[in-house]
Amino acid sequence: RPFKCVFDFAGCTSVFASKNEWKRHVTFQHLVLHYWVCQDGGCAEQSNSDAHLPRGKIHRTGLGASTLLTPSHTTPTSASGSTGLPNGSIFNRKDLYTQHLRRMHTPPNIKKSYKAAKEAGTTPANSASGGGGGGGIPEWEERIKKLQQRAEIERCKLPEYMTCPAANCDQEFTGTEAWDQRMEHVARHLDRAANNKSSEAEVVNFGGEDDSTLVEWASHPDVTVIQKRGGGGVTGEWELNNPLEKRGGTHTGNSTHAQHMRAGEHQGEMVIMHNTHLPKEKMTEKIKTRLLW
DNA sequence: GAGCGTCTACCGGTTCGAAG
DNA sequence: CTTCGAACCGGTAGACGCTC
């Protein structure tokens, strides 16, 4: 398993055998560039500014599946107080949001159709349970697609300047593809390191002295993927931060990111973060500043 | 408190379409 | 044709509420 999580320096111990899984893990579990908000029926009542609510709690009471097609379901605009997160059920992956839609908000008549089809062994049943997809009732599938688009919110953007974390590698990456290029590049280092353990040139030290661009970006107030342990303290001591964790969260105990989010700016269109992809000049300037500390 | 049902989080495999 | 990435799909684990 050559692919260790790029945030291992912040405490993530995940390792992966395939590049695909490695990239997916980093993207969905740590970066959270996008998320999906369900504000239908009972979900709309969930405030994400309050102290942490136990998982699943808000889904208990009278979910109005039949209200899905009502005008109350509009673009997420009702950002809650202190976190910047909108009210509603939040999902970090599109397929999870879709799964939730199918399970919780399928109108009763559609559910009935699926059930009948399942018993008859016909097509719509294939997508009636779980994530579902493909065949089904066309109007409902169309509706789901629209809801998926509407619910999607961009949290932050990828960096536009990065360097390679491998020792003795001066490779730089710029532009909107910088992150992907770096991941691909680093994957080759990791691969080679796994196959040739004696090669020091392939040693990748995420978050180390050769990886300041990652640390700078990930800890930026508009990104907050990692944060200083204990909210300050020792340089180099980082811990993971889940950007979608509600303020006051308890089960990870690291949810101070909310302080950085600017809920007051969310009026009209829901925009959580702005310009988090720092240009090269700005990033290097920040790095210089950091080194002077 | 045990057992059960519901729901979300996460993982890993599969499918499918686009690009080379 | 092959490779790759995005999305889909199915399964499992854990948390929680409800009932007995």
From TrEMBL:
Give GO MF terms, alphabetically: DNA-binding transcription factor activity
Protein name, please? C2H2-type domain-containing protein
Provide the taxonomic classification. Eukaryota, Fungi, Dikarya, Ascomycota, Pezizomycotina
Region annotated Disordered sits at 66-91, 114-139
Superkingdom of this protein's organism: Eukaryota
Low complexity composition bias: which ranges? 66-86
